[in-house]
Description:
Chain A is an alpha/beta fold. Chain B is mainly α.
Amino acid sequence: MPSLLGMSGIGKRFGATQALDDVSFELDAGRVMALIGENGAGKSTLMKVLSGACPADSGSMHVIGTPYRPIGPSSARDAGIAMIYQELNLAPDLSVEDNIMLGQEDQRWGLLSRGHQRPRVRQVLDRLGHPELRPDTPVGQLSVAAQQLVEIARALIGQARVIVFDEPTSSLAGQDVRRLFEVIRRLREDGIGVVYISHFLEEVRELCDDFTVLRDGQVAGTGILEGTAETEIVSMMVGRKVEELFPTVPHTAGDPVLHLDGLTGRATPRDIDLVLHRGEILGIAGLVGAGRTEMLRCLFGLDPIVSGTVRVGGIIRRPLPETMIRSGLALVSEDRKDEGLAQDRSLADNITYSHLSPYTRLGLLNLGRRRHAVVQCMQDLEIKAVSPEQSVAELSGGNQQKVALARVLHQDADVLLLDEPTRGIDVGTKAEVYRLIGEQAAAGKAVLFVSSYTPELLAVCDRVAVLARGQLQDIRPASEWTEESLINCAIGSDGAAA
Amino acid sequence: MSTDRSRLSNLAWSLGPLLGLVVVSLIFGAIEYQVATDEGREPQFFTPQSVQVVLNHASLIGVAALGMTLIIIAGGIDLSAGTAIALTATVTAWIYREGFDGMADWRDTSPMLAAVTLSVLAISGGILTGCLCGFVNGGLISLLRLVPFIVTLGTMTAFQGIGRTISGETPVRAYGKVPGAVASLQKPYPDPEWMLVSPGVWIMLILAVAVALALRYTVFGRHVFAIGSNESTARLCGINVVRTRILVYTFAGAFVGVAGLYQFTVLGGEGDPVSGLGLELKVIAAVVIGGGSLNGGRGSILGTLSGACIITVIQHGCVLIGVPDHYQDILIGLIIIAAVTIDQLRIRLQAS
């Protein structure tokens, strides 16, 4: 009997990057398959190929034995494949019912027949069983968890046989995760095949039957979860031994250089006191929304400060990016695409925007001298690009991140504020970034390192501070934390009990 | 050697609008040749006089489009450019009219000095008015945090109102009060023949070179591209976005002022506050045909000038062939859409 969904030999190339290379997997009805892999491993691209959002260069797909060649989102729906993305695709002003039926309305001569569609909607909503879900509620008034269920309802109305969940728990609280898992188990019992994309191994173990690991666009391993050791999966994901992942450079902390005194922003952060020393790497942990990014933005002058002060070298500075850059601060944004880099400008421009003064006389630029310096930067960081004039958009994610870091190094700042500097880049580049951070600390720079990836914080930082709901919860040497205690502290509830 | 190749392809693309100009000229030249021989007269399209007229007509739009290029690269738009041109023309005319009468005694004693002083006052008055208009636009956009489209839609009407207030409902006439050197600024066939094209064209070309160099070789130029390409990045890099944007609009205002002076001389020494409406669309069209992106971050001076010339070549060509006015509008509209389509294709081509 043919499997429910099969992808075989899928290849996809974006410019210089081979995003997918000969990827194959099979999904059976009534099974939940985990698609595991680090950021940038190709999970999202694979799902875009499946949904028809982006055509594959090579390979084939089939649904219950019949070839499936999507030409757009509608062909996925016709084939019974539904996608639940991280960013939900809902119209907030429309009601639950209208959202569910969007594009698949019960109609006759172009007129809605609500009498027909209402019972169908009710039946599906009952199946999902959530108190908030009533057909007439505008979707914008629902919690994220309930909105997710609306998307699932839309898939069920459309007779989906395969449902793909893309990191569905990343914005859910614990209780909602339980409820979602219940729903997914029920879907499995109804014979629906589920692809569950995640990089949380605990979740995967709790929910899924099979797994496929992607790494650098290739299938690194596949099998049944039961009986597979966690370390085995991790090494499939990263493709190397754990020791090689976090190179360190010896460094020692010196004089304090940055003081936050009661720093308070609009919503977050709230009343933060913090001291950062030269030659120190201070990690900032916390959940999404804990105010880590906001803290960096406030102290760099990008977001307004409501109260409190920022002292650099003992002197209170005006919270404006211009002033902060002049006093020796530099920030790498978490959002490389929309904030960190001007995508259609050249490498040279992006690296030097914050520090054009070495090449300037009377407002005029010496482009030759600048090019020379940029080429040097590119060599130092091993940035793979055609020339300094190439636009940043044409580079791979890892190389783009290096350009963002190159700007900070080119600025020769004393205090580096790094917001998720390793997000969405491959393991090899991550290791390079860690080494770079270590070298900066060894050269007497101070580093504030915000990350959601606990292992890197514990391996790379000297001290780690934890934020929750905008407030500083605790700050300890990295050696005194464990992954578990860090997460408990970030959640803020079980911390005392542990 | 892929470096050279990517540079070469960049160069080729930046010459695209110029190439478009050549193609459009050849097409009109061929049609006009055919029509002229059919009617048994000399073909006129490829003659020096024809080039003089086209460049001369292009210079009014072209000089204003230099400023508009800055604005569009910085991610903005200025719908008020047309009425601002008319307003500055009105101010210039008003200063000439009032000043001429006020200087009656002085003119008798030293006519030369009086004429120069009056012209300096009138011209700088017009240009400063343009700067002020731009400053108001840039200031409102930055301080009220409104989209440029809305702000300049508002000032578009307001500037016309201010002009009509100054003029008092009839155009301000300064006939015979303008010195010959200024009045002949926009004469298509220049007086000393060795000048080849009108002084207005020369002024536009000099300003164009200055702006092109400024965009490439000054910190200001880099900042203009930076805020248009990604304002958040610009802020992150410590670029003073508010100051840069206000400067961009103010500079653009100066070019509007020069265009106003051209408008004033084209009308033979008259400032008509309602003569500018619609001009802004031609100015924006010139930038867009020249490869400027309304999303900001892209645009070039060479492209913009080519765009301005394409528009006037179409107008001039249609006149020579005897095609009615309204067909010109249709043609220009199609060219705008074609230009943007080609640009989109280019972006997709470069992405893959």
